[in-house]
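TEACHING EXERCISE
Course module: macromolecular assemblies
Task: Read the component lines below, then compare them to the predicted structure of the full complex.
Student: A.B.
Group: 4
Components provided:
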Amino acid sequence: MLSESVPGTPPEVFAPVEVPSPSQPPEEVEYVQLLTPEGERVDNPDYSFELDDEAIKGFYRDMTLVRRIDTEATALQRQGELGLWASLLGQEAAQIGSGRALNKKDMVFPTYREHGVAFCQGVNPLNLLGLFRGVDQGAWDPKDNNFALYTIVIGAQTLHATGYAMGQQRDHAVGDADTGEATIAYFGDGASSQGDVNEAFIYASVFNAPVVFFCQNNQWAISEPIERQTRIPLYQRAAGFGFPGVRVDGNDVLATYAVTQQALKRAREGSGPTLVEAYTYRMGAHTTSDDPTKYRLSEDLEHWKLKDPIERVHAYLTRHAGVDHDFFEEVEAEADKIAAELRAGCLALPEPQMTDFFQHVYVEETPQLAQQRDQYAAYAASFEGEG
Amino acid sequence: MAKTTLGKAINAGLRAAMEADPKVIMMGEDIGKLGGVFRITEGLQKDFGEDRVIDTPLAESGIIGTAVGLAMRGYRPVCEIQFDGFVFPAYDQIINQVAKMHYRSMGKIKMPVVIRIPYGGGIGAVEHHSESPETLFAHVNGLKVVTCGDPVDAYWMIQQAISSDDPVIFFEPKRRYHEKAELDESVPPALKLHQAKVLREGTDATIFCYGPMVKTCLQAAEVAAQDGRNLEVVDLRSISPFDLETIFASVKKTRRAVVVHEATLSFGAGSEIAARVTEECFYHLEAPVLRVTGYDTPYPPSRMEEEYLPDLDRVLDGVDRVMGY
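Instructor-supplied answer key:
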């Protein structure tokens, strides 16, 4: 009929494509857990947490401080002092548990959200703000704290980590679980779809590189749910690449510590890579530019609030370790002090000068660039004295 | 003195670099036992071991991405990309990581990475094996881009590239791998890596060329001489940065310039030279800077490449036109 060929009317030739739809978070996910959301210690046949309650108090302090740093940074963004911030809210246990499992000689390759790991490595939180304030591009020295620069391009750092680990092999720094060296690569569930991450898995596998692939599966890649990245649990992908994969409750700092430590030991002793999937949840927006109310349900958030990584440690310390109110108050006071210092430091970050950014394009500057720099300087100087 | 091919000269240069510095390592596909599809790394794995001459998985982004990590660890990776058209899976790592690492770290991380790419046409290859993507790298700040035109340069430039603390894209003119010249390894190089070379002094016009077009342009100059035209031929050698000093000096002398390259015309190396020469040598010019290049098409099927590539006649036609002003 004529009406069927009217321009602009789409022909009905395409059947709807069937794809899995986002599901409610499962109540029972299989993973390694050593501390329940209620603060109860539980046993696992393969992993155990062998440090004492003092260490757990230390984890509580770490997690509370990085949450406070994160909150302050978000506030600074809201007040116009940062251009952007990528919050780690909800992922404190994944980052502190894995970060505290590292030895001094181990090397870290982060994404742009590893503020907690940076804290464990001794990176000044103020250094993290430079990138987000736009005064530099994350110009700390990776050698100072064995913490590489934040990497914005999703997944690229997993290859850098693998190459670095291949260097550790060639330096004969691998072979002992305690004194050897390992590398840890952080990435997320979204990054698991990247070619670079899959190539990193292959390189690490065939060269038996001492690298731990630490995937924080926070369920969301901006607006895309985990169902858009994978049809199987991410940790199971490791089997296809020929190395072990393990899923851990990423909101359980004790389990994350134990699992990461075992993976690192395996790498240091020369047994090759491990994929750790830390099952967690991005409690905040992807970044301060994001609006998660457009794509996810508030019930999800309520569900995950019950699994809060800090609350469960608070409950454990209170009920089972005899930790009193004074300790928690001290930590709160320390957090407030660090936040105040961070704020003051942020506001005092020097304004960058364009002339600084002609430097470092090359180690050996080209004559063309030197000329441009001089022309810019002369041009800028021509405005001096003008209001 | 025995003559050496351009390919064997690169091999000898790689060997010398590996002997001089234990941190120099080779990475690439088929570079070990096979010695690379062009045999440029022949014998190196046998003599330096599998830890230093690494047959990588067949994944180019992986080659460059792991090279970044190795460089951060203190190594000096020399990566072989098997053919020009296969570099693009690694483009993100090259552009976003290799090129910018020194800059974004404010000089705290160096990237002494060399990426060797056999490039250019003329060998009757199937698609993706004959391309000239040098401008796609020269446009990226943080990279340096060079190419050799003869065996002596090949031997020294690869070593200079490896000792550079900046990342260098090293383009090898694959159809000239078998060109021969006498190479005396005891005579140190006359030029730095980013200096151009005046191959033939002349007075009437300058031909700027590089890589595979060097031989073609020298032949054209010989033929033009028979017609009484005295052409200067400059092998640019370095595309980023250009040796503007040598370029300007030549143009101010001859007052006419033709740039020749296999890569396509628009936004090519010739365009940049034309702009720079116009800015700096405007009152010396007798004619606009002309370009003799590949056409603005994808590289054609190999039966067409003789039409596509600049050859002796097209170079001479360019000379005729620049002399006609």
